[in-house]
Amino acid sequence: MKIVELETFVVEEPGRLRVVTNSIHQLVSGRELIVRLHTEDGLHGAHSVNIAGFGGEITRQLFEVEMRGLVVGQDASMPRRLRRHLFENMEYFGNEGLGVFGISIVDYCVWDILGKAADKSVAQLLGQYRREIPAYGMVGWLSFPVDDLVDLCKRTIDRGYKAVKIKVGAPTLAEDLRRIEAVREALGPDNHLMVDANQVVSVSEAIRRGSAYQDFDIYWLEEPLRPWMKDGLAELRQAVRIPIATGENDYTKYNFKELLVRNAVDVLQPDAPAV
């Protein structure tokens, strides 16, 4: 099952490109980079990565310039061997960040190929346990006015979701609380509300804000601190009643081990391209 080609292309949603913000980023939503691997057997596997923020062209060049030569000619039927091959050859820039994104996306493409070859879903290949999992709607960018935010959350619940997540980390705690209170009132007590700070605050400020957020029955507080501040996350977890969620900017299983060893997290959130 030799890989004979790697191709990339960008997909944009016509008329749906828009600027959104969280506490530290300004993003343009609606752009995806598609990576596709082809095998000599006529099968192909594909995966996408969001390139709405900075670095989209660099991400594409990673595949076009660096990874094509490492991937073409490899055997897609041996995913663990291929991952090791990529890690060893990309070691100087591949242990975290963009390099791991590239390795992970190739891995997804390979598993897509294996699923098609076996006529099974990847979940089935990996030992599927259940047919359904709970889902929530991430609808609450900081750039949305409160009225629009509330309306989006209501519409998300009307579509059948039982939980929504909104961004926090506004310049003031008062602004955060105004948004949280409005959404909580709109959702009522029977739906979950999560908040995501996108790493913007210090440990002391996270404790201050988390202590205020918890009065609104927050299901989890996500990424209040930078990913390397694992001791701070452990301190925060002890100081507030809200479960702490993090992991989106941690890379590989070794960083997640550190979170667990330090008792720094309640909800692990590995980002698909980073593990």
- Overall shape: globular
What is the share of helical residues? 40-55%
Number of helices: 10
Main sheet strand line-up:
6-7-8-9-10-11
Low-confidence stretches: none
The Cα radius of gyration reads 20 Å
Strand content: 15-25%
Order of helices and strands: EEEEEHHHHHEHEHEHEHEHE
List the defining traits of the structure above.
single chain; 275 residues; alpha/beta; 6-stranded parallel β-sheet; 3-stranded antiparallel β-sheet; 21% strand; globular
Task: Explain this structure.
This protein is an alpha/beta fold. Helices cover 42% and strands 21% of the residues. The chain contains 10 helices and 11 strands. It has helices spanning 56-71, 79-89, 91-94, 98-118, 122-125, 146-158, 173-187, 203-213, 230-239, 252-261; strands at residues 3-12, 18-21, 26-29, 31-39, 44-50, 137-140, 163-167, 192-196, 218-222, 244-246, 267-268. The strands form 3 sheets. A 6-stranded parallel beta sheet has the order 6-7-8-9-10-11, covered by helices on one side. The mean pLDDT is 91.
